[in-house]
Amino acid sequence: MVLKVFFPSCCSSAESGILIGRWISEQSSAVILAVVHFPFIPVQVKQYLSEVQRVTKVSVSVLGSWSNSKQEKEESLSEFLEDLGTIFSHEPWIQISKEGGSKFWSCSTLQKHSNNPKEEEIILVYYDQRKVMLSHLHPPLDTATSADHKADDASKLSAIFDTVAKSKILFMTDRYDDGPIKLTHWQSDGVEASIIVELMKQASVPACMLLTFLLSLISGICRSRVLKFWPLSFLWSKLSTCEQLGHRLQHLQVISSNKKAQTQTQLMRKANIFVSLLIDVALGILLMSWLYRKNRIGHLADTLIPVADHVAEELQDLLQWLMGAPAGLKMNRALDQVLGRFFLYHIHLWISYIHLMSPFIEMILWYVGLSACLGLTVALCILSDIIALLTFHIYCFYVYGARLYCLKIYGLSSLWRLFRGKKWNVLRQRVDSCSYDLDQLFIGTLLFTILLFLLPTTALYYLVFTLLRLLVVIVQGLIHLLVDLIDSLPLYSIILRLCRSYRLAAGVKFRVLEQQDGKPLRLLMQINPLSYGSVVQTYRLPTYSCYPKDSWTSLCKKLFLGELIYPWKHKGEKQD
């Protein structure tokens, strides 16, 4: 049988004493947590351990003795340490001694109450107590054939990590305390603390209370009946700026909540949201300072009107080209002229609208630039909405063309079923047989011929405006991809992985220190950090999407049938 003893490397130079820790019988492992030095009273040690066990819910006990031959060289010490096994009565009683003239340690076990004591092979594993206590062991993410074996190994390691993490109160006693018990652990020389962190904790309490009150007030206004009337409810549900503000409002409510995080996942989520908000606001303030420097807002307003005029002129040239013989195609002259003049009139209305708004554009942009202080994501969402408003005439052209094309496609498919003696059963949602008389077949043939010969003209207009609409949707999609990246990227976890990689543990690796016959094998346990991809996959924040998640097959089917590609989120559709 192999006995594994996990020994903290910070106790290697500790004075002689007794070892306290947890015995894991399922794994035949002993996790040493601290060393109690002489002199001590056994009753006080038992009382102290019972108090620690009551608080931490970890079965902490005296596991054995520790002898450092550099401090004590009396022969009676080893006998005294063996006699301590009868006072604390733990099976097996572990004896670890550090030999003065050798780099090897001796480790043995005593089983006084066993009738058939067996000689056990002992493996001495050193671990960094501070890193193990602060780290969080993650379960394996892959689903390979050896997943069960990896999960079993992870559960064994988690028992060791949990033992050290839950024994935090044991490490709150240092050598400067006046208590009757002197311990050696990773904080023996002084409890690790920061005055700045403590001051921030004290100041965060009233700040969180004030922020919670303000957020509850804003949430009450947002849930009021005023915003449920048609114009405001429509704008709130369609504009991506409103969606992003609501998303950030939920983040602020999570951060300012006075409810303490119960698990490591909740704590990391709060930290990731806080850092994401902080960096988002910092980038927004930088953007705002850049916009208001050297009158860039005025230059942007001066270039906006010429750009809009140039786009309108290009659209007029495109429509003039479509009203002629585009690419040598023979179009239906009457329908071509009607559609062309209809779209030209819309462009004329759009140009008039832009020039009517031109005196107010600089003022609008000036106030819009102030919204960047709410975050870069809010500014990007406002940019997306501005693009949607500036290209609204293109969206109207696309809707007109798509509706005409869709009407003709469905009309042709219905009339094609008429020729085959079929019809669509609306109640049963299927195609059934049907008999038609001569007049119905004549009218159907006439309508089919008319729709078929008008289809190329309508399809060409639909194709052109669909390409223009897809170009606008792609630009807005890239903006929203950047917004989703800022919203969902776990920046705190990535920074933690970069600076303190041991905090995010994926597993451990063991390095052989010394090995000699008759001596215990000495290993060094080192923490394997999570990969950056696993960090992003594990701690990625949920986000919203302003675009429905259609597959490529569904998108191509919609484009072929003339169904609208909505740029906004469908009503009642919530995506994480």
From TrEMBL:
Any Pfam family matching the protein: Gpi1
PANTHER family linked: PHOSPHATIDYLINOSITOL N-ACETYLGLUCOSAMINYLTRANSFERASE SUBUNIT Q, PHOSPHATIDYLINOSITOL N-ACETYLGLUCOSAMINYLTRANSFERASE SUBUNIT Q-RELATED
Keyword Glycosyltransferase belongs to the record: yes
Molecular functions (GO terms): glycosyltransferase activity
InterPro entries in the record: PigQ/GPI1
Any GO BP: GPI anchor biosynthetic process
GO cellular component terms given for this protein: endoplasmic reticulum; membrane
Keywords: Glycosyltransferase, Membrane, Transferase, Transmembrane, Transmembrane helix
Transmembrane segments: 203-222, 273-292, 338-357, 364-391, 397-419, 440-464, 470-495
Name of protein: Phosphatidylinositol N-acetylglucosaminyltransferase subunit Q
